[in-house]
Amino acid sequence: MSYSNILSEKNDGICTITINRPAKLNALNRKTIQELHGALLEADDANSVKVIIITGSGEKAFVAGADISEFADFNVEEGSELAAQGQRLLFDLVENLNTPVIAAINGFALGGGLELAMSCHFRVASDNAKMGLPEVSLGVIPGYGGTQRLPQLVGKGRAMEMIMTAGMIDAQQALDFGLVNHVVKLEDLLPMCEKIGSKIMRNSSVAISAAIKAVNANYESGVNGFKVEIDQFGKCFGTADFEEGTSAFLEKRKANFPG
Ligand code: COA
User: How far is the CA of 148 from the centre of ligand 1 (A)?
Assistant: First the structure.
């Protein structure tokens, strides 16, 4: 499929999706969200794709937020619909994808940009990255899951301070907060994500997908994560990947997972 606001490139098991509106600091407008939705589903469906990396084009921004020019004149209903549709099409989709998704944060990740990074399974940042949820400075609150995922990742007090001050933290502070897992030089950002991706790819993609479901269950209200873990654990025993993984171990050879 061809896209105008994103680039999607598949190479050696990794699909790198680059948000490509550098003149607008890769701000997420409706079209970009739709295209990301399509590209993510396409990558998730492709057997050859084992890991997805999401990044921003240029050296300045991952994503500088939702496109403010698109919602500046919205009313209450339109505002609610914007959040609901965005969460459904992109943010919840990313979080619940079967394929692991790494955010490669290459600059500003603000508002919807940080919310996108937070919906990825984990994050790596370049040392020039700046992160924040500045929505209250615009008279609105984060609407793409930021009030829920930021406290999950950094704790309630830090999240409250970041949201209330509308301030930005730098990559080192994000590392100290546990918001990102690694900080590297900008030129090392994609190689680092690819290196982590290649470690992930050695393992069973079927088991990884089950692990994503079990870990995410911890954050779903009314869901018993331990029960989901038991169910997912049990299901693994019926997979060809389990047969191959255990046989390979017992035969002292490297596993070649069919999944
Ligand atoms: N929505 C729409 N356009 C945006 C945008 C956003 N979230 N963020 C940046 N842009 C556009 C700017 O309007 C500008 O476009 P123009 O050249 O046509 O005027 C272009 O991207 C470059 O941004 P600019 O503000 O000139 O860059 P800067 O280096 O001076 O500042 C930021 C960078 C990130 C500090 C600043 O762009 C900013 O504060 N952006 C908004 C962040 C935000 O509030 N996000 C949450 C939205 S809910």
Answer: 24
**Does the CB atom of residue 67 touch ligand 1 within 6 A?**
yes
CA 140 to chain centre: 23
CB 245 within 8 A of CB 230: no
Stated pTM of the model: 0.98
Q: Which helix (H) or strand (E) holds 122?
A: strand 122-126
pLDDT in tens, 98-116: 999 999 999 999 999 999 9
Give the whole-angstrom CA distance, residue 74 versus residue 79: 6
Alpha helix segments (H runs only) across the chain: 30-45, 68-71, 76-86, 92-95, 112-119, 146-154, 156-165, 171-177, 189-201, 205-217, 225-236, 240-250
| Residues 88/41, Cβ–Cβ less than 8 Å | no
Instruction: Give helix then strand counts, H and E, for the chain.
Output: 12, 10
**Of the candidates 190, 211, 217, 192, which has an alpha carbon nearest to the alpha carbon of residue 259?**
211
How many angstroms separate the CA atoms of 142 and 134, rounded? 8
Pocket test for ligand 1, best of 24, 60, 91, 138 (most atoms within 8 A of CB): 24
pLDDT at 2 over 90: no
The residues facing 17 across adjacent strands are: 8, 54
Let me know how long the chain is: 259
Q: For 200-255, what is each residue's pLDDT tens digit?
A: 999 999 999 999 999 999 999 999 999 999 999 999 999 999 999 999 999 999 99
